[in-house]
Amino acid sequence: MSNYHIKSFEEYFQVYRKSIENPEVFWEEIAEEHFTWRKKWHNVLSWDFTKPEVKWFEGAQLNVTENCLDRHLSTRGDKTAILFEPNDPNASAEHITYKQLHERVCKFANVLKSKGIQKGDRVCIYLPMIPELAISVLACARIGAVHSVVFAGFSATALSTRVNDCDAKMVITSDGSYRGAKTIDLKGIVDDALEDCPGVDAVLVAKRINSDINMKTGRDHWLQPLLDDAYGDCVIEIMDAEDPLFILYTSGSTGMPKGMLHTSAGYMVYSAYTFKNVFDYRENDVYWCTADIGWITGHSYIVYGPLANGATTVMFEGVPSYPDFGRFWDIVEKHKVNQFYTAPTAIRALAKHGTELVEKHDLSSLKVLGTVGEPINEEAWHWYNENIGKKKSPIVDTWWQTETGGIMITPIPFSTPTKPTYATLPFIGIQPVLMDENGKELGDNQVDGRLCIKYPWPSMARTIWGNHQRYKDTYFSAFENMYFTGDGALRDEVGYYRITGRVDDVIIVSGHNLGTAPIEDAINEHQAVAESAIVGFPHDVKGNALYGYVTLKDSGENRDHDNLRKEINQLITDRIGPIAKLDKIQFTNGLPKTRSGKIMRRILRKIACNEADQLGDISTLLNPEVVDEIINNAI
Length: 635
Ligand code: WTA
Hints:
The chain is an alpha/beta fold.
């Protein structure tokens, strides 16, 4: 019997030991007993981190949607698969059963085929959080097309970059989206983006806000009439274990966003197994993850993990602040949510509005609370624990990444004793290590550890789409024979991990990973700008906010700095999206540089964080004199 559902701390240790001592036997049992295969594997794992190359369940054949849909039909056909809660609190929620979801996915898959999409083709999905988003993701998976979901808050430029990088043939979008009291013209953004995307020959448009939009003849098609005419069954495409399932872009410290490629079998097995255990999901539970499917959290823990377990997964279209900051608790009460998974930034924003809006609601259905996306600070942890969990629901602080595909370090609820700000212990099968800068392994309670993983796990990304060398350089070159996460961490004396934050130039703002380089590139496009550097500084709701240091080509006294700030933020909004806007912009006559011309961000970071007294030795700089000027004018 495999250990699919872990129920005690002792059992966690037993299963963990088994998964480390004999990973192949362990994962083979999990895969065999809990999933549907069209053909069995001949090899559980082959790997070589020097190439790097990792293959799980080689030789196996399957379709992920057969596991997420078809196999539940006989036992859970009338159970709600997706519980859709619309933006408008007065509109009724939609319960989509497994049977209905199966039919809607099949119809959508047939529409994709009728528009020429074939196995291996890339399809870009740019949709708000409406059922069509989950359905189109699954429709792609059903026919073996590779979906690339782009978060519908990204700008036209960001969208076109991603569409072109993965060479998508089709874009799926909607006329517009609701965001609280506002609407957003999504189709207009797609039209702008596609000016630069010659490879896209079809756009499917879902109707959501009934706005008057342009439909380009021959390219754009309303989705609904096509679905109405489509056949309600669609045979699965049989996929090899290592066939691509999806690409999802994540920011790097430099250059283009990285299209992380996830493959079929390993991703399915790991996202399902973690879902079951990290949330202690039981058959009649209602589970809600507040993330957007545009991020990995939504892929693994709104769509694939829950559906592979036959769960009921809530999909929420709106925002936590509309119609007021009690909306989350209203939804928890209304749908009797049992597991609630959100981000520290949301918790902090809600905590700011006091407990009155919480107390109005009956939250007694809650059993497990989760957090993800950035380190959770002590204050937010306690607020969540006391006011939402009433000190009864364990908080699972789950550490993982787009690249890891699934949760890596986390408590198991009701088993692992929690500790505020600690993600605690590695999940089953995960072998973390802490390394120092020079590649030496660190012990417990040592500072400045870099978190690495020394053994493969089933859902790790296999490559960066179109750039395997970059995959190797970014993740497998810093430390020999290990996956480097880019995060700093420490481990206490009982083996609990605490993630301290990024050690590279990625800054997490409101849970969104932002690379400094693309933001600087956007700023430098401004004709008045000579050079810029972005750093993060602590923010009480967003976790981090962005501080930009900008030098101008001509620093004339009578420049309108406020206007320049607005123009710079507009450029960032156009090139990336509003999430990357700067909170502070300081104009300066120079940026501190090393003798080789590299900008010393460490110094700029200290100044932005009000720690200018801790700069250390700056005499080796090329231009130490600019430092005083920057300190004196800091915002
Ligand atoms: C950070 C999100 C501390 C971390 C699933 C990681 C966290 C990055 C936690 C990945 C956590 C995520 N505690 N930090 N529980 N979870 N992070 O790719 O820096 O959007 O590298 O994946 O978020 O963000 P991504």
